[in-house]
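Known limitations

C-alpha cells in this collection are predictions and should be treated as such. Users comparing against experimental data should check residue numbering before alignment. To illustrate the layout, the record for 7-keto-8-aminopelargonate synthetase is reproduced below. The input appears on top and the generated C-alpha cells appear beneath it.
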Amino acid sequence: MAKIKHNNFLDTVVSVMTNAKDSGAIHLYAEGDSFNGRQIQIKGKRLYHFGTTGYLGLEQDKRLKEGAINAIKAYGTEFPLSKSYISHPLYSELESLMTDIYGHPIVITKNSTLGHMGVIPSVVDDNDGVILDHQVHWSVQSAVNPLKLRSVPVEMIRHNNLEMLESKIKKLQSKCRKIWYMADGMYSMFGDYAPIEELMMLCKKYPQLHIYFDDVHGMSWKGKHGSGYVMSILKELPEKVILFGTMSKTFGASGAVMVCSDKKIQQRVKNFGGPLTFSVQLEPAAVGAAIASAKIHLSDEIYKMQEELAGRISYFNKYLQQTNLPLIVENDSPVFYIGAGMPETGFNLVNRLIKNGYYVNIGFFPAVPAKNTGLRITISRHNQKEEIKGLIDSLVEEFPKALKETKTNLERVNFAFGRGSKNLSLSKPNQSSLSLDTYNSIVEIDPILWNSTVGGNSFYDWNGLKSLENILTDQNSPEHNNQFYYYIIRDENQNCILATFLSFGIWKEDMLAPKSVSVAIEKIRETKPYYHTSTCLSLGSMISEGDHLYLDQNSPRWKEALNLLLEEIEKLEKRLQPQYLILRDFDVGNEAIKSFLQNKGYVQVAMPESAVYTEFNWGYQKEYVNTLSKRSRKHFRNDIEAFKDKLEIKIKDNLSQSELEKSFKLYIAVKDNNLGLNTFTYPFSLFQHMNSSSQWEFILINLNDTHRTLVGVMFCYKNSEKIYTPAVVGMDYKFSREYNIYRQLLYQTILRAQQLGFIRIDFGLTAGFEKRKVGAKIIDKCAYIQTRDNFALEALDWLRKD
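Generated C-alpha cells:
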C-alpha cells in the first residue's frame, strides 16, 4: 500500500485547503473601515461574527486601545532590540502584573509558538522523555520535534486516553529521569478539556511524571483573575506543572506567558530560551494593551465579564439542546462543534450561513479527520441573544438542505463522529434509480460480466478471486483471513456503470509510512507481531495490485453510482468497524475522481508507482531491444545479455516440493528486504495453490553451475483476458547483484508474455526504475483513505521524524 512522504502529505493538505478556499469557506478578507467584534464584513455583506477566539471581547475595550495608543506615542511603533540586552520601559510593569495574575514566576514571550520553541528544549533534558496527546496543538508538537535530534524519546497517545498514557509512562520510566506529558487545557476544535484532576492523580502515582499544559484557549474567560481553565481546576500550580497562556486571544493584546512554580526553571528559560533570547520583543503597543488588560483581570470586573460570557454560553447550549443538530461535545466552553461529516457538506453549510448573515469557522483536515468536517462556532460577549437564536434557527433550516444537496444524511454524519444512529429527523435516505447488487462471493457473479469490467486486470479475474476466497479463509494467522464483498451498479438499461470488490482484514499501519519507520517497527514486531496493525476495509485485497474499481466515467451518472457505493461501504463500516478505509490504485491524473473523493472526506496519499508493458510489436530479441531507449539498450547489453550463458531459464507449470519450498524462501528474502512496501508475509498455502492451478506458472532462474542453484523465481498469473501478471518475486541476494537477477526476471517475463500472445503485462507496484529499463510504462498511482481519527497517521509521522 501507500507510503506517505512528507511532501506528499503537504501536497494533500494544500489540495484540501485549495478546495476549501475555492468553496468560499477559508482565506476570506474582512472589509470595512471599522470593526466592533459583533459583526464582520465579508464581500460587502455584514455578518454576525461567531468565529472569534476573543471570547470576552476585550480586543474592543477602549482601555486596551488607549493603552496601545499611549505606548506608541511614548515609545514608538517598536522597540527593535532583544530583551536579552534591554527591555523597553513598559515590560517590567507587565511582568509584575502577570505574576500577580498567576501567583507564580512567569516569562513573557513574543507568542505561544515561539514560546514553546524556547521553553520546551530548555526544560526537557537529554535524559527525559516526552508523551504527546495526539490533539495537542501543532505549536507544541513542532517545538518537540527537534528533541529527537538529541535522542529524547517521544511517544504519542490517543486523545485523553489515560490508560494509554499510563502504559507509555511505564514504558519510559526505567530510562527517563523525567517524563513530560504535553496536552492542551482546552482543545480548540471541539472545545473539550484535558482530564486535569486525573492527570494530577497520575503525577502522584508516578513521581517522574511532569505536565506541560498549553491553555491558550482556556485563558481569561475562566479561573481566578482570568488565569485560565487549568488554573480554575488546580487553584495552585504544582511544582511538576508548566503552564502556557496567551495574551493574543481572549486577553485582547499580544504575546504569551509561561508560568511555573520553580524559580530555577523560570530563570533558565529567561536567561536563554532560544528564540526568546534572539527574537525582537513585543511592540510597545502590544505591551501597553496587555497592561490595560492585566489590570482588568486583577479587578472584580473580570468576574462580571466571565459571568456574562457564561450566560451566553448557557443560552446557546439550552437553545441548541432543543434541536436535532449534531453537537459533538457538550460542555460549558465557548467553543461548539456541529458535525457535518463530509467536507463538501461543511463548505455548503458555511456558505448558506454566510448568505443568511452569519459567519462561523469551518473545521477540516488536517485539524480534524477528513470525515469529521464540521462547523466550529465560538461564542463571545459581543454576541447578543437575538443573533445567537438567529444562528441556531438558521442552522436548523439550512442543515437539512445542505445534507440533501450534498447527497448525505444525518445518519451518516452521526456515524462519522461515532454518535450512533440517533436524531434522524433532519434528513431522509437518498433515493437512486440505479440498481446496486451486493455479493459475498465471486461465484454469485456472472464471470463474463466480471472479466469484462474490473476482472480484466492482474490476478483478480473471476477464477483468481475464487481462489483467493478459498485461500484467505480458515488460516491460523488472523492477518491471512479476509472477508470479501462485491458490488455491481447498473442503470435502468442494465448497463454496468460500476463494479468492484473490497476485502476486510488486518493490515500493517506502516504500509502508510516511509521505509525508515517500517525498519524501526519491525524490530518491535519481533516480540510484538501485531504492533501498529489495524483492521482495514480496502478496495481490492492486501495481496492484489491494480485497478480494483471499474467506473464508467463516460456515463453522466458515474458520480451518482460512486456515491451509492460509498453509502454501501459505510454500511459495511458500521458492521465491521475498521480503523482504516482505503480506496486504492487510482491514477494520480484523474482530477475528477480526486475532487469527488476529497469532497466526500477522503484524503489522497501517494502510492508506489505502477508499471505496465504493452509493446509487443516485435518478433525476436533484436527487435525488442530496438524498442528500448538508447540508455536502456546499453543496460540490456551490460546487465541482461552479458549473463545469458551463466544462467539457466526454465518455465514450469508445477514445482517439486523442494523447489516450492526454496521458492517460498526466496520470496521471504525479497519481502524482508523490501520494506518500501511492507505487508504481512503471504501464507504458504497461497504458493501451494499457485503450484496446483493451471493459471499460475513459474519463471525460474538457476545458475549454470554444477548445483544448478536456484537464484530467482517469478510467480506469474495468466489472466483470462490475456493479461500476464508477475505477482510475486523471489531472489537469492547472495547472487542478485552479481547477475542482475531482478532485471533478468523482468526480461524473461516479457519474453514469456510475448510467447503466449498476451496483450499486457501488469508489473504491479514499486521498482519503477528497474521496470522502465526493460520498456515498461510507469504510472503514478494514489489512494484515498479515511480513518476513525488521525492518531495512527500522526503517531507514525513521529516515528518518521525519529
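For this record: The first helix runs from residue 6 to 22. The chain has four domains: 6-59+303-425, 60-283, 435-607, 612-779. Please report discrepancies through the issue tracker.
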